[in-house]
Write a structure and sequence with these properties.
The chain is α+β, with helices and mostly antiparallel strands and 751 residues long. It has 22 helices and 32 strands. β22, α21 and β23 form a beta-alpha-beta unit. The longest helix has 21 residues, at 518-538.
Length: 751
């Protein structure tokens, strides 16, 4: 029995979970079915099946669960509040984009046991260190492969297990390792012996080689040898002396080695696989940037049609979509408002079959989740299609629900010359919408309606889905009323039509901002890149996907960041390259949703052109050299028995146009367990400050498209050079431990 499990098994809540409970799984008002749930012996897997069905069952791991919500804390359970009392209801929320699981227990005691039990298990999973995590992983595999549950594993079971683990190993070698681990010569391995077998299996020759290069006796690294390694290979300067001792204290498992002030191969491997040995500079993961500059000086994590969980035509509108985006660090969410039939404004994708949710519920949800991940301001981008009456209702909800959180007045009562900073607006929500007049004066009640932001392009944007005839002038002539109450809530983000850079230079106020469709923004970036960069030092720009992307696909945000656009709105619900780039850029600076633009994009007189990066002052290109050494425990793509991956690694650079590049290793046949490439990929980067580096692992297929295995994306400026591990993420952006790549990175000035 896993020692970690036995302690937790004594917990009364865990005992209830292991004994199993019948809980009602609820999907909608009409779909509510009883399922039998229990926690398996590994203390990690929750298993459930219908009480009647034959063999079919489902499982998920506690590590996939992010949180447990108590009571009526989901749309489904709220809609059934009359039928099921709150103290019997709870919701399991998963990482990534996986849907919630809504459950109802039969008794209060049972509900509490599951709520508290799952929370304890999540806490335990989060607080395990690297070694415990690996032990848990090995233990899980042992459980999976011990088919007859006798706590032992014979060679036949071991062979099956190797296939499950993505290892293609010739039988002779496997039998040799098996015999070495089978100390008692009983023909089967118990858990301790299996751990030994697994250690031999995962013996990392490539790590051993690096260790040998610096170890005098080949057994251990003395303090001085470790310092030498840190200085020479890991590019650490003076601090390597102190750091070497800290690493031994932190990662060395052997007491003997610690007493000698040395590090064993085991300790060395644990260090290389830890956060400190990872590719991301630990000091850049924390909040470290200057947050006191005007909002226009930051890239801001932004979502498009935030209320949608799926596509743009039939998808579900959902409050969960706002929760997921805000938890991902998104700081600008979109709210599409339409007149509701009973006087209450609703949110949905107009003129489509997407379902509707209440505006006031959206605002309550935003209030609750706005500042859980980040303290910095959230911008509510209002797409207003309501008549005056319901606009006034919207204004009342905004004031009542958000109260002081809503920034409705100038910070110090003065009209400044530039936007306030994220620091000054901490904990505040800003409304982006149309406004009657400016901050300086108030004009006449009537305002020529320029159409809502995303429609204002329909006159000149071939991609817009507007079916109306623009020649008929149908949305520019009619006078439409703006509710004074709603208008008064807009301070620093007044939506205006864009009339060109020339007009903006002479007339634009800092608090006025425009929205551009992706095609319009691309055209401006290509034709007037430098002007766009200059414009974005003062004004905020919001970019949104083309109206043709009804499948919720995304455009490449990098092209917009290259010209300094701050609010580059993406469909957060759609996984893929574009969201990987967004997650990659905003992974730095404490994941707070704001990243300071490089200095040459904050100076109003900048001459920077993304097309001609070599012309800027202070131009310093870099050479990036990546030796892709090996991969570890890559997940299986195809769950079919006997299929094993043929992995290759591709490195992709996203940045200014001359920096766009990709290169890949060859593929390794039949080895997802410990493939070794030892290939070097070289790149020249002209604008390092804007470059993102994406590592992708794929399963090579000569007949069809390669299958995606995992990826990791980060800004070039956040890369730690030296021998590093890259901990891969799934398509959804969630961790898939212990899958990783081992690389050696060198970054030097191009001479």
């Amino acid at each position: 029995m896993d020692p970690e499990c036995s302690r937790i098994q004594d917990d009364p809540d865990i005992k209830v979970m292991m004994a199993g409970s019948t809980l009602r799984k609820v999907k909608s008002r009409s779909w509510k079915k009883q399922r039998h749930f229990r926690l398996l012996e590994d203390g990690l897997t929750i298993w459930y099946k219908s009480r009647w069905a034959g063999k079919g069952h489902s499982t998920f791991s506690v590590t996939e669960v992010e949180a447990v919500r108590e009571g009526h804390q989901s749309e489904v359970l709220l809609s059934l509040a009359e039928e099921f009392p709150a103290d019997l209801c709870f919701t399991l929320v998963f990482h990534g984009r996986q849907g919630n699981l809504d459950l109802v227990a039969d008794s209060l005691e049972e509900a509490q046991a599951w709520i508290q039990g799952v929370r304890k298990l999540i806490h335990r999973a989060q607080t395990m260190d690297e070694k415990e995590r690996l032990d848990q992983w090995v233990w899980d595999w042992f459980q999976k492969a011990d088919k007859n549950k006798d706590g032992k594993m014979n060679f036949k079971e071991v062979k099956k297990l190797l296939k499950m683990m993505n290892v293609d190993m010739n039988e002779e070698h496997a039998l040799h390792l098996f015999t070495m681990a089978d100390k008692s010569e009983s023909g089967s391995l118990e858990i301790e012996q299996f751990v030994h077998f697994y250690k031999m299996l995962t013996q990392r020759d490539e790590v051993w080689k690096v260790f040998q290069d610096y170890s005098g006796d080949g057994e251990r690294l003395m303090l001085e040898e470790l310092q030498n390694f840190l200085q020479t290979e890991q590019y650490e300067g003076e601090q390597s002396v102190q750091h070497a001792q800290e690493l031994i204290d932190c990662y060395e498992p052997s007491e003997t080695a610690m007493k000698q002030g040395a590090m064993s191969l085991d300790g060395f491997q644990v260090y290389l696989c830890s956060q400190e040995g990872s590719i991301f500079k630990p000091e850049y993961q924390k909040l470290h940037q200057d947050m006191s500059q005007p909002l226009s000086h930051y890239f801001i994590s932004s979502s498009h049609n935030t209320y949608l969980l799926e596509d743009q035509l039939r998808g579900q509108s959902s409050l969960e979509a706002y929760i997921q985006a805000l938890k991902r660090g998104c700081r600008c969410v979109e709210v599409d408002c339409w007149d509701g039939s009973d006087g209450e404004p609703v949110v949905y994708h107009g003129h489509t079959l997407t379902s509707k949710i209440l505006f006031k519920d959206v605002i309550s949800t935003v209030k609750e989740y706005a500042f859980k991940t980040s303290d910095f301001p959230v911008i509510l981008s209002l797409e207003n299609h309501c008549g005056v009456e319901q606009q006034t209702v919207m204004a009342q909800h905004l004031k009542q629900v958000l109260g002081d959180m809503l920034q409705t007045t100038l910070l110090d009562g003065q009209v400044p010359q530039q936007l306030p900073s994220p620091q000054e607006l901490k904990g505040k929500i800003l409304l982006k919408a149309k406004k009657i007049g400016g901050l300086e004066e108030c004009l006449d009640e009537t305002l020529t309606d320029e159409g809502s932001d995303e429609e204002e392009m329909s006159n000149d944007d071939p991609e817009s889905l507007s079916t109306e005839d623009p020649q008929a002038g149908n949305h520019t002539d009619k006078k439409s009323k703006l509710s004074r109450e709603l208008s008064d809530l807009v301070v620093y983000c007044k939506s205006v039509h864009f009339h060109g850079f020339e007009h903006a230079r002479s007339h634009a106020k800092f608090y006025e901002m425009s929205s551009f469709s992706e095609s319009k923004a691309k055209k401006l970036a290509k034709e007037a890149g430098t002007e766009f960069v200059q414009y974005n030092t003062q004004q905020l720009s919001r970019i949104y996907p083309s109206g043709l992307r009804t499948d919720s696909s995304n455009y490449n945000p990098q092209e917009m960041w290259n010209v300094g656009c701050q609010i580059v709105a993406l469909n957060f619900q759609t996984a893929g390259l574009e969201m990987d780039l967004n997650d990659g850029l905003f992974r730095q600076n404490g994941c707070c949703g704001y990243v300071l633009k490089p200095d040459f994009m904050r100076d109003g007189n900048t001459q920077f052109s993304p097309e001609k990066p070599e012309e800027r002052q202070g131009y310093k290109p870099l050479r990036l050299s990546i030796q892709v050494i090996s991969g570890q425990q890559l997940p299986k793509v195809n769950q079919k028995e006997g299929s094993i991956v043929d992995p290759l690694v591709r490195v992709e650079i996203y940045g200014v146009p001359p920096d766009q590049a990709k290169d890949e290793t060859s593929h390794i046949n039949n080895n997802g367990f410990n493939p070794v490439w030892n290939e070097t990929l070289n790149f020249v980067i002209h604008t390092p400050e804007l470059a993102l580096v994406r590592f992708v692992v794929e399963d090579y297929d000569k007949a069809s498209r390669n299958d995606f295995i995992g990826q990791f994306t980060l800004p070039l400026t956040c890369i730690q050079a030296g021998y590093r591990h890259i901990h891969l993420l799934s398509k959804d952006g969630t961790a898939i431990p212990p899958s990783s790549l081992f690389v050696n990175i060198n970054i030097s000035e191009l001479t």
